[in-house]
Amino acid sequence: MAGSGWFPAGSPAPLTLVGSAGADVMQRRIVAQGLRDPSAPTPGQLVERLVAVQAQEFAYALWGVSERVAGYPDRPAMLAAFKEGELLRTHLLRPTWHFAVPRDVRWLLRLTAPRLRRQMASQDRRHGIDDDVVARSNAALAAAVRGGRHRTRRELAAILEDAGVPAGEGRIGFLLMHAEFDEVLISGAMNGKQQTYAAFDERVLPGHEFDEEQALTVLARRYMATRGPVTAKDLAAWAGLTLGQARRGLAANENDCLVRDVDGMTLWSLRDAAPARVSRGTVVDLLQGYDELIMSYSESRVLLAAKGVLPVADYATHAHALLLDSALAGHWRHQITGAGAVVEIQLRRLVSAAERAAIAAAVNRYGSYLGMPTTMAEPVLL
Description:
single chain; alpha+beta; 14 strands
């Protein structure tokens, strides 16, 4: 590759990130997550299959869903699905923002919210938020969104102030989160570029009724089906469970599982999981930084990238992940200009001509998703 035009002669050798066993695990995960030959007909069906999809960065999270849906719906189609409530956005699991479908939100919250509330306790004390404040806040918020009125965060903050519930100095975020945990608020339709909140019961369908053990069993099974092979620590970190809860959920499915050791980690997968596929030609994935292929794993994330590479180091200023044949090989981001979008790429290793062509094809597909002219800046080598 030296002297090819992308990098000068004398550039460092390719970086080897995972061994053969790790590469097999990564291939299986990519297939399980729907990143090869996407078959989910709609965004909602994809999110339902994955149980929950981290949506901390809303715009990039929509792209992460689109990558796994048949036909690769473009950004307007993804926004339409969100507007109609096909997928909802709320604080689930660790907690951070996640997409989930209406029929799953209620049981997931009832499983994870008790622990999430305990994790918020110190912030509640810091902001003077007690049970009485939450009750008054919830009542005001419920009245504000009742009857299909979708309100922005700023509007709800003003409504709380008018109701005598101080919302400044960062309190609004915690009050809104309590309202989500208490099944008062859920995401509403976009108001221009702003997120809104809507009445929980008007957007969330009656769903599954599980006790804790049933919920742990179902969650562990669906997690393995779409993320496997995984460890108990992976499940605990992804779902915001205790390690004991994660182990109980996996053990409840043990008769249907294969358990093996890879690099000193005990990995669980379902016996009927689809096998790994050998890709035909070079395959490039442009993943958002909080993509489920990254965030679904903690202990075994090392199989995606060498130790210390994730989270992204300071010298890699582009937070999103570029995978070459299932291994992390660089980072990317886009910049919107008056003429369209420019995708900027930082690579961790040299690339061949075939890999360069595959990167360009991935950028073109991303431009089709954005629906605007998209070019790629000359990549740089980290």
